[in-house]
Amino acid sequence: MGWDIIWSGYREKSFICGICLTKDYSALISKLEQERVTRILFFPNNKIFKKINKCHIRNDEIHILCASLYSLLNANNPLLLSLKICTQNQKNPKLKSSLYRVSEQISLGKQLSKLLRQEIKELDNYSIQLIKVGEQSGLLPQALNSISRYYKRKEKLRKKVKSTLNYPIMILIMAAIIIIFFLLFIIPSFTNILTEFNTDLPKFTSFLLYVSQSSKSNSSNIFYVLIFIFSYIYLLPKGRKNKSSLEKFSQSIYKKIFFDIFILKFRINLSLSLGMMLKNNIDIRNCLETLISTENNTDLKLKLTKIKIDIKKGKSFTYACNAVSLYPQDLNLQIKIAEETGNLATALLEIAERLEAEYQLKLENYCELLPPIALIILGIIIGFMLLSLYIPIISLPIGL
Predict the structure, then answer these.
(1) How far apart are CA 237 and CA 228, in angstroms?
(2) In sequence order, what DSSP letters do the residues of 352-376 get, joined into one string?
(3) Residues 372-386, buried b or exposed e (16+ Cβ, 10 A)?
(4) Could you report the per-residue pLDDT of 60-102, keeping only the tens digit for each?
(5) What is the pLDDT of residues 184-218, one digit of tens each?
(6) Residue 139's closest CA among 129, 148, 131, 150?
(7) Residue 347, class by beta-carbon neighbours within 10 Å (0-12 exposed, 13-18 middle, 19+ buried)?
(8) Which of 144, 97, 93 is nearest to 123 (CA)?
(9) pTM assigned to the model
């Protein structure tokens, strides 16, 4: 299968880097030399070397790239020239290298959407889907403008979530430090006091004392486990197969816990993509075929397939959406009226805007819940430990 390798080098005095899957280093060196890359170095693909080599692409960089391409294409510049201009002005070494390869392949007549999917992994399916729609409909600048605004909002939301999470994460770290301090230093002294009285202890107190003794006797093992976790996350290189399995697991947990947010995001992407395609006179069956081919979730892909089959049978889009419970009733009514009046594309774009505002509001509400939840968890843990220690002492006979 091979490993993801970070490579770095220079092309025309500009530092560039990238990530690729390889088993044969000599073949990779030959390929990079053909692309006029010199002073080539290889590193394991982990977070530390990614940070050192600046081998990651941020949301705001994708926003700026798409906005620049939109401006250049909107001024009637050819796609190849626009890409070359963006490549020359690009400061991110990984993005610069990716854009260079995209430009080379575009000159050979390849599709932009397929090339971006291969070269810029940070672009999600929704963005690739919009670019593909833009290529098919001849409205690539508008698609890039939509992606630019999408990543601008995404980066703004990411920063907001990150700033909101800083406080609960700090609380949880402090809680972990306090718990470790209690288990290793405070509780052992209480253990000696409680054993002197030779009385039966409550089960939760016995459990706490057992945990404390186990932690103290295995403190070195705990330290090694923490080192292993840190190494696995930040230092160990990971093959794409392992990485994708980890991503699938985290996504499945995310979908189960935040199902309403996940389905809301799907409805936004579906409404916006369908609205754009229908507005450019693309047949709805072709639109659904494009959406099915780019959707990764099996359940959602099945729903889109059922909608497509119903439409082929002559059913309306509203009926097909109702059959799979794709939209809530109020939106189904809006879609039904729009379909009857011939304004389905406009209605879907309006629905996408409305759902996007709802999505941001829900996400913000979830983030605001985290600090009080973290405080409650911290209070429960410390309260449990204190009660477990003091209840046996309080319940002792007065004469002792």
Answers:
(1) 13
(2) HHHHHHHHHHHHHHHHHHHHHHHHH
(3) eebeeebeeeeeebe
(4) 889 999 999 999 999 989 999 999 898 888 888 888 888 888 8
(5) 787 777 777 776 666 677 787 788 888 887 777 77
(6) 131
(7) buried
(8) 144
(9) 0.64
